[in-house]
Amino acid sequence: MMKGSFVYQMLPARVVFGRGTIAALPAEAERLGLRRLLVLSTPEQVGLAERVRKFLGDRAAGIFGLATIHTPIEVTKQALELVAAERIDGVVSAGGGSATGLGKAIALRTDLPQIVLPTTYAGSEMTPILGETQDRRKTTQRSPKIQPEVVIYDVDLTLTLAPLMSALSAFNALAHAVEALYAPDSNPIVEMMAEDGVRAIVAALPKVLKEPTNPEARASLLYGAWLCACCLGVTTMGLHHKLCHTLGGLFDLPHAQTHAIVLPYALAHNAPMVPEAMTRLCRAIGSDDAAGALLRLGHDCGIPLALRDIGMPHDGIAYAIEQALTNPYANPRPIEVGPLSNLLERAWAGAGL
Ligand code: NAD
C-alpha cells in the first residue's frame, strides 16, 4: 500500500464516560429494549454486581458471579444454562477483563446485547476479540457478535482497584497503544488515539499511585486506557502481545503482570525498525528513550521486573521461541532466534534493556 494510504473501520460501540455514570444503566438498557438482564462478575466483585442489580431494578433477572480469568469454556457453559433458564435478553458485565470476557463468550453464542461497566484498564470492552481457554489452551477469535454494544465508564468504580493492580493494568493498556503504533493496519486516527492514550496514562499513573482515590487522576487514567483499548480493537497486535499470549497460556502466568514485564523489552526489540512510532511514543512519554522510560516507570510503580518472579520456568524460553517461529505473525522486526532469545532471557531475569 502507498505510504499514507489506510483503511479505518470504526467499531459500533456507544460510550458513556464520567463519574456516577452507573446511574445511566436503566436508560441504556431501555435504549436497547432490554427487560431481563443477567449481571456478570467475578466472585470478588459480587458486591458490585448487587449494586448493578439495584440500579437495574426489575430489569435485572439474575447475577452470575463466577467469571474467571482467561474465560474458561466450562464457566461459559454454566452461565449459558442460566441464560436459557431465565430467558435472559442481555448481559451486563461489571468488572475487569474477566467479567467482560464472559459477557463476550455468551454474546458470541447467543448474539445477546452487552452493556459493560469496566473497572480495570485492560480494555477488552472496546474490542471484538475474545480469548477462551479449554484444557489449558487459549484460543482467540474476532467477531462482530463479540463487540459490546454499550460501554459505561464510571470513574468511581475504578477507585477501589489496588495501586499495584492499577499499575499492572495500566501497562496492559499501554501495550495496546505501543503495538498499534507499529501495526500493519494502523492509520492516522489510531496514531492520534495511541499517542494521547500513552500521554494520559504516563501522566496519571504516578498520581493514582500516590492518591488512589483521587477522581481526577483516575479519570485521566481511565480516559487513556479507553483510547488504548480503541487502538487494540482495530489493529493487529505484534510480537509483544503474541509473547504474552503464549507465555500466559503455557505457564498460567498472570495476564497484566506478564504484559507489564515484557513491554519495555518488546518495545526496545522493535524500536530500530519503527522510527515514526518511536517519535510519537517519545513525545507522549516525554523522554528520548521510550523503552527505558517505561522500564523505569514500572520499577517506580513496584511492578515485578522479571518473568521468573511470576512463575515462568527458564526452559520456557526455548518453547516460546519455537512457538514464535512456527506461528508467524505481523511484527515490524523479523522473528530471528538470536535477538528473540536475548529479549526473553533479559525479560526472564529482569536484566534491564
Ligand atoms: P480481572 O478482570 O481478572 O480482574 C483482576 C481482579 O481484580 C479480579 O479479582 C477482579 O474482580 C478484581 N477487580 C477488578 N476491578 C476491580 C476494582 N475496581 N476494584 C477492586 N477489585 C477489582 O483482570 P483484567 O486484567 O481486567 O482482565 C484480564 C482478562 O481480560 C484476561 O482474561 C485477558 O485475556 C482479558 N483481556 C481481553 C482483552 C480482549 O480484547 N479480548 C483485552 C485485555 C484483556
3D structure, described in words:
- A hairpin with a 2-residue loop joins β6 and β7.
- The protein is α/β, with parallel strands linked by helices and 353 residues long.
- α9 packs antiparallel against α11, α9 packs across α13 and α12 packs antiparallel against α13.
- It folds into 2 domains: 145 residues, Rossmann fold (3-Layer(aba) Sandwich), CATH 3.40.50.1970; 187 residues, Dehydroquinate synthase-like, alpha domain (Up-down Bundle).
- Helix content is 52%, strand content 12%.
- The structure holds nicotinamide-adenine-dinucleotide.
- The site of nicotinamide-adenine-dinucleotide has 30 residues, from α4, β6, α5 and α9.
SSE layout:
Blueprint: E1 14-18, H1 25-32, E2 37-40, H2 46-56, E3 60-64, H3 73-85, E4 90-95, H4 97-110, E5 114-118, E6 129-134, E7 137-142, E8 150-154, H5 163-181, H6 188-210, H7 215-234, H8 239-251, H9 255-270, H10 275-285, H11 290-300, H12 316-326, H13 337-349
Parallel strand pairs: 1-8, 2-3, 2-4, 4-5, 5-8
Antiparallel strand pairs: 6-7
Helix pairs in contact: 5-6, 5-7, 5-9, 6-7, 6-10, 8-9, 8-12, 9-11, 9-13, 12-13
Bound molecules: nicotinamide-adenine-dinucleotide (NAD).
The site of nicotinamide-adenine-dinucleotide has 30 residues, from helix 4, strand 6, helix 5 and helix 9.
